[in-house]
Amino acid sequence: MPETPPPFDPDAYAALAAPLLGLALDPAWLPPITANLRVLAAAADLVADFPLPDAVEAAPRFEA
Amino acid sequence: MSGPAIPDATTIAAAIAERRSSAREIVAGTLDRIARIDGWVGSFTDVLPERALARADAIDAAIGRGEAMGPLAGVPFAVKNLIDVAGLPTRAGSKINRDRPPAVRDGTVVRRLEAAGAILVGALNMGEYAYDFTGENVHDGDAHNPHALDHMTGGSSGGSGAALAAGLVPLTLGSDTNGSIRVPAAFCGCFGMKPTYGRISRAGSFPFVGSLDHLGPMARSVADLALAYDALQGPDPEDPVATTRAPEPAAASLEAGIDGLRIAVAGGYFARGGDPEAFAAVARVAEALGASRTVELPEAHRARAAAYLITAAEGATLHLDRLRTRPQDFDPAVRDRLIAGAMIPAPFVERAQRFRRWYRDAVLTLFDGVDVILAPATPCRAPKGGQTHFVIDGVTLPVRANIGLFTQPISFIGLPVVAVPVRLDAGLPLGVQVIAAPWREDLALRVARQLERDGICTAPVAELG
């Protein structure tokens, strides 16, 4: 197994994920979609870097 | 000549109750001003003269019969067009929703304000499907900031802020998922309240992100905000997250002052990443309140990232069928973000929701030591209309994604906030978030009222025409 996963390729990912979601993408939409995917991936990394205890559960219904 | 601005709600209600004015006179004046002014501002998408005048006549007749009237009797108001208004398709800023059948009845918030005597005069412009911080709309045209027409109103409740700042109505309703009441309140220089998550029913409004959506009032005075807030409260079985708590009216304690309140300034994340003016506005408010303490909301930058992920994923889930069938009918800027949101792997979103639980618990412990926390509402004054990037701390950033960087970590855990307007100079206004613990809107309102009484926070009508 490789020690590290290959880098995220948002163009390839969007092209493969769209049919799964039933979405037909105009090629002109791809650059902004992949730019957004990069931002979302960075946000996900930021959240994932925080060491959450296993016992912390998501609230099934958020309450203030 | 733009003519006189509509007085504030408290003044109108008193004039009508004392029969110095009739509801018909007030509504006719309101409709006239909207007709003359709104072409510049673009805040209304629907004006309802027949409905409003009929309602005004009914109120005048009831007063003539000596009937007891509600605290908002005769007060005109308008609502963001994601709130149901009987007879109108609830467009939520979109082209697609215009094909929906007209709403068969008003949303809960409209019915509650009208039960208190208020009079609905129309529906207000907004960013498409509320996924917006600018107040710009490709379908209806952009709302313009009445204080500088070539600048943004902020969004997504852009029409709600602009109609107030232009003096068209004294009271509006908006929605706030990540900052959509607090941002236009700041940019348009008015007061806005995002209550505790679950406090005000959202039944009969078009959703965006169910676990983050709030409705709330906006006004030009704190007393008006409190009157509306009190009228809007109450359980509602039609909103699955509406609280079952009994209403906790806040207007009666508005003049209680701030003695005994522990007020602190949010440091760390909330003290960097904005223009100096944004922090100067907070400093002015803090000085007026004698607040010298600083507290740090832990991991606020991650909270913002988690809110961003949840918003994109939940919003995309809501709109997936429309993205499949009518993608060309979306605002491209909204469509592209929603499509990307639909592609987020589930573990990323679940992790964000778990982090949310941790962050909520960590922030709530801060309220053991403080009652109110102050933070900037936005990182800057209103950008120019159409502006796509701004420079903050020497870094060029996209406007749309970053206007809400100080509001997102607060709404993420549903804390109540009153956004107060601050004028540092003759330039555009700024806003400060007055943040309280869950269910303590009363404290945020008391602080806002003290700032208003001391002349630190005012919401004058823009000079137009």
From TrEMBL, chain A:
Entries under Pfam families matching the protein: AtzG-like
The protein, known as: DUF4089 domain-containing protein
Top-rank taxon: Bacteria
InterPro entries, per the entry: AtzG-like
UniProtKB/TrEMBL annotation, chain B:
Origin superkingdom: Bacteria
Keyword field contains Cell membrane: no
Domain Amidase: 25-443
The protein's Enzyme Commission number: 6.3.5.6, 6.3.5.7
Keyword Ligase set for record: yes
Top EC class of this enzyme: ligase
InterPro entries referenced in this protein's UniProt entry, alphabetically: Amidase (IPR000120), Amidase_dom (IPR023631), AS_sf (IPR036928), Carboxybiuret_hydro_AtzE (IPR014087)
Molecular function GO terms recorded: asparaginyl-tRNA synthase (glutamine-hydrolyzing) activity; glutaminyl-tRNA synthase (glutamine-hydrolyzing) activity
Keywords in alphabetical order: Ligase
PANTHER family, per the entry: GLUTAMYL-TRNA(GLN) AMIDOTRANSFERASE (PTHR11895:SF172), TRANSAMIDASE (PTHR11895)
This protein's name: Aspartyl-tRNA(Asn)/glutamyl-tRNA(Gln) amidotransferase subunit A
